[in-house]
Amino acid sequence: MQDARKNDRSLAWDVTRSVACAMVVMVHVCAIDFYAFGPLWAPSVVYDAMCRVAVPLFFMLSGALILRKDEPVLPFYRKRIPRLLMPLVFWTIVYVYLFGDRSIPPMQQLAHYLMLPFEHLWYLYTALGLYLAAPYIGRMFRASTDAEIRIFIALWLLVACVLNQISLFFAESWNPPDLWGAQFFSGFMGYFVLGAYLERCRPATSGIGRWTCALVFLASSSVIVLGTCLYSTHISEPNEFFFSYLTPLVAISSVAAYMFLTSITSLPARSITLVRLISDSSLGIYCLHPMLIWLYVKHWHLDDGLGLIWLRIPVIWSAIFVSTAALVYLARKLPPLRRIT
What we know:
The chain is an all-alpha fold. The protein has helices at residues 2-34, 41-50, 54-66, 73-99, 106-115, 122-143, 146-170, 176-180, 189-201, 208-235, 248-261, 269-280, 282-299, 309-331, 335-338.
């Protein structure tokens, strides 16, 4: 019975990771048409808003898997830090070589991008910082009661999400965490703790509960769409104000999506195989897919011949996601490449 429960949770985690991976690709495909008003702007806003939970899902899942375990600090670092450092360095070199400024010496560019991440690789830098803090945050988490953790989450939501959004709207120079010395309650660590808390409590999300989560996700995503359209129209330029990962609506949407996805504990056998393949390849897909976006859209212009505007983004996303997953699957057949994909 215990093994069956572990298998159920393992599948739920794989489903969550796979969906988050697919959503990240969609977010970056939507970015192609978001920054200028045009026929594809509205579809890009809708699809992007529905997928804004991708990065929070990754962090919540990592917290669920890491913070509840009692591991010595040094073995934890030896096991996990190289898994991030190796792909970070490798993919930084690849992207600097392919897309860097040819007028600047390659080593100078590499040094620059190892200190300041190359676009989408920011996620690996943030994950590295969270992993360094995880053994200590994990000890506090395991020693805390559910009520104490809820207070931490409430303070994080206030400081990192609510006040963060207010600061973006009224004065970008106003930084509440720095002003009040409340950095402990800022950043993505809250998603780490939130994921671990939801895994510890394991709230019931079957039947009515599951579909309630789906409705909350759709409702919060719809408000993000509405807010983005109204605010962007008001200032006469596309604006990502409501898209920030550290905002109340994205946090609510992320919790609802996480609870819904982690309630999926059974699928047809073929679907399980596909889900686990994508889950295992998620790091490689995350790192590689911007290269295929550039190749398909910016270089080959494969999107030019597509017709219906609401189908254009899903078609491009499908082509890029499937191609990237296939390439990563083949790359992982070679043992040396498994460490960077």
